[in-house]
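Fold this sequence, please.
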Amino acid sequence: MNLTTAIFYLFAAILLGASLRVITARNPVHAALSLVLAFFTGAVLWMLMQAEFLAISLVLVYVGAVMVLFLFVVMMLDINFEELREGFWNYFPVAAVVAAIMAVEMVLVLVAPGAGIKDMTAVAALPEGVSNIKQLGVPIYTTYLLPFELAAVLLLVAMIAAVSLTLRRRKHTKYINPAEQIAVKRNDRLRIVKMQAEVELPPAAEPTDKPAA
């Protein structure tokens, strides 16, 4: 086992642990931070396959934008996470079946002829003077231009929906309208009341208990 293979297995283990933490963490903020770790680790794996552009895009787009959006939605929305977790185990059988199917598909891909780290790095190797950014950009903006634009529109719609969800009115929350504050006049908030001056009364004579002579 060479150094590249050892680094791959190390970061693959970290990626699996972070992914498991995403779905098992009780605190949604902790789950989002674990997903950030998973993205960073996936970027390292892309670097091992000499796909620098994809690695940098993964860090900038997902960690720098998508995860900030996730944290913004999680921290701004008034969601009862305890209520959401009540039916967690009801969906566990379906989730286990889907996870098992995905695991079997990944194993079949890895054990297929020609699969492996060495073959992947060999495929990623490019002739001298040719960058992988160009090799990736030409198909995206020619052959796959329409799917690329559709993905961009979907991301835009998701961002607008997330922002609009945070603008909903919550119960027991007081709101201030700046326009009403600016339009307020002095007579609407201040009333001058004239009152009589206070006059000190002389002290009353104290009653005596002695009988009159």
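Residues 119-123 have pLDDT under 50 and may be disordered. Residues 52-76 form the longest helix (25 residues).
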